[in-house]
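We treat protein structure as text, and this decision shapes the records that our systems exchange. Below, we set out a record of this kind in full and without editing:

***
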Amino acid sequence: MLSGKVAVVTGSTSGIGLGIARALAMQGCRVVLNGRRQTEETESLRAEMAAATGSEVIFHRADMSKVSDIETMMAGASRDLGPVDILVNNAGVQHVSPIEEFSTAAWDLVLATNLTSVFHCTKAVLPAMKQRGWGRIINIASAHALVASPFKSAYVAAKHGMVGLTKVTALETAEKGITCNAICPGYVWTPLVEKQIEDQARSHGIPAERVVREVLLAPQPTREFVTVEECAALAVFLASDAGKSITGAAIPIEGGWTAR
């Protein structure tokens, strides 16, 4: 179904991005992994995924907060594997702080990584997608693209902006065989979420175990973390022909959080 398609997944050396990259490789996609640093660990990860899936997997280093890095990576992906068919904008960072204590540097980093990078990656792939009459852009947003939580001003603003950009992209490409959708996960057990526990404990003044129970999982009626595999399966569906009539959507996968 997706065999031979070229997929770029940003922020894909761990967590949701890694799960989606692996799932796309299992479908026969040639995959570009991305992270800020190229290390022995990333090379081992790339080689393991290629061996396990039988698909071509390469790695491009790029700091997604830097436009020059993004442009270099996207040009390199097209040069090394061919025009990009599937773009998964997953790279993200988080900072937890009350607004009056939120540093300008942290705000700028979160917005650049979580939102501005989506614009630049999308801009890079659209011409070739339009020329070929086929493309899939999948933006990994968050339940925080639909609702808000305290102490996450930059993250919530960026994810709300991502959904807006998703809708605009969908409308501009609706007659071109291209879809653009946002997946909005609730709390998924990833390194990013794991790191938040300490920050949230400090901001709320409560122990880490109470953060999990009373802050992270409190909004999710299922009281369970969403899994990486669930997010990856949804991304594969949206990339497939079965998802060709779904575009401009912000799809929650958050245990009922936004049903309240």
Notes: The longest strand covers residues 178-185. The chain has a mean pLDDT of 95. Residues 187-225 form one domain.
